[in-house]
């Protein structure tokens, strides 16, 4: 049996409706992430929470020391569960995430969180590049509408495009129900 870790990425208050940078579908994604989190805890898997803090002056969200930068209560860390504070999109960059995983002998990484097109994408690709087997729980992730060159892209399409790309070469994609049935 391999050692598995759940990485809960950036499910922070600023991404919720009352926050500074709300995501489409964040409530449902966080509810699903909470189910995955409960199952991981029940199995005794390593649980790692990732929390973003912006280093930019006048940052639009995740300002250090604010309520918005705090982990949302739906997935709040318990004592003993590591919290990796990151300042970049990739949760492995200039953090202790890889050391935590390696020290625990982790081979399989399960990812939930936000935003699908940024930090979830980055941590998934980095984890795969570092040799971990990665599973992304697609309905436990959320994003927002984007715009490029005058084209508005709805969040559902952004999410689908990024999940499709990750499924192509970087990760196994599962729904919450599928993941919980396999556990």
From TrEMBL:
Protein name as it appears in the record: Isochorismatase
Gene Ontology molecular functions: hydrolase activity
Domain Isochorismatase-like intervals: 5-148
Keyword Hydrolase tagged: yes
Pfam families in the cross-refs: Isochorismatase (PF00857)
PANTHER family in UniProt: ISOCHORISMATASE HYDROLASE (PTHR43540:SF1), PEROXYUREIDOACRYLATE/UREIDOACRYLATE AMIDOHYDROLASE-RELATED (PTHR43540)
Keywords: Hydrolase
Organism lineage: Bacteria, Pseudomonadati, Pseudomonadota, Alphaproteobacteria, Rhodospirillales
Matching SUPFAM superfamilies: Isochorismatase-like hydrolases
């Amino acid at each position: 049996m391999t050692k598995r870790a759940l990485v809960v990425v950036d499910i922070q208050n600023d991404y919720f409706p009352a926050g500074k940078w709300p995501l489409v579908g964040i409530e449902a994604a966080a509810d699903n992430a909470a189910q995955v989190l409960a199952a991981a805890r029940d199995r005794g898997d390593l649980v790692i929470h990732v929390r973003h803090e912006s280093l930019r002056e006048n940052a639009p969200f995740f300002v250090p020391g604010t309520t918005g930068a705090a982990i949302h209560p739906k997935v709040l860390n318990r004592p003993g569960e590591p919290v990796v504070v990151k300042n970049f999109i990739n949760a492995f960059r200039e953090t202790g995430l890889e050391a935590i995983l390696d020290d625990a002998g982790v081979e399989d990484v399960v990812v939930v969180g936000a935003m699908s097109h940024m930090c979830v994408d980055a941590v998934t690709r980095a984890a795969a590049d570092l040799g971990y087997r990665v599973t992304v729980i697609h309905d436990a992730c959320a994003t927002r509408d984007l715009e490029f060159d005058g084209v508005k892209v709805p969040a559902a399409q952004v999410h689908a495009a990024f999940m499709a790309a990750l499924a192509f070469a970087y990760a196994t994609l599962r729904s919450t129900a599928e993941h919980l049935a396999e556990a």
